[in-house]
Amino acid sequence: MQDKIKVLFICHGNICRSPMAEFVMKKLVSDANLADHFQIASAATSTEEIWNGIGNPVYPPAKAELARHGISCEGKRARQVTKADYAEYDYLIGMDSANIRNMLRIFGGDPDGKVVRLLSYAGSERDISDPWYTGEFGTTYNDVLEGCTAFLRYLQQNGRIDT
Question: Which InterPro entries does the record cross-reference, listed alphabetically (predicted)?
């Protein structure tokens, strides 16, 4: 069996966009019978949602949006991305340009070209807006689904998944 494809989705607080991406991607690969090929997680660039070492759960409106689509994120807690994650993961996928800047600062650069904005896989330079500020959780879900679907297609087209 090939090595697992290790994917880390990253946003500012790890309570809205990146956990949405984590669990949407887990559902997509499960539905395609590819779950055994992946290790998928999410993290934050900030510590704002982490108190005394314990991360906050997924923000209730984000959790509700996932549930509307039959996706559970039960047990997920925010965590901050670390420099060590650069070596651990194959793909470090940010939600917006600010996330990318912060990721590059935390990682000390991107010598292996692992840092990518999610919607770039869908051929877009758009950021995925933070629903914490916009209140548009449905729009965020749709953007995340578009990006994750395109990312999975990218992996399939580039021979990263043996099926």
Answer: LMW_PTPase, Ptyr_pPase, Ptyr_pPase_sf, Tyr_phospatase_low_mol_wt
Cα atoms in the Cβ-side hemisphere of radius 13 Å centred on 132: 14
**pTM here?**
0.96
Residue type, 54: I
Nearest Cα neighbor of 119 from 151, 86, 153 is 151
Residue 137's domain comprises 5-157
| CATH code, 74 | 3.40.50.2300
Furthest-apart CA pair in the chain: how many Å?
A: 43
Distance (Å, rounded) from C-alpha 59 to C-alpha 37?
A: 28
Q: What is the pLDDT of residues 1-45, one digit of tens each?
A: 468 999 999 999 999 999 999 999 999 999 999 999 999 999 999
Q: Which residue has the tokens 């923000």?
A: 59
CA 129 from chain center: how many Å? 14
Q: What angle do CA 89, 70, 40 make, to 5 degrees?
A: 5
CA distance to 43, 110, 117, per residue, from 15 (Å): 9, 25, 18
Instruction: Report the catalytic residues.
Output: 11, 17, 130
Tell me the CB-side half-sphere exposure of residue 51, using CA atoms within 13 A. Answer: 3
Tokens of 94: 């940010």
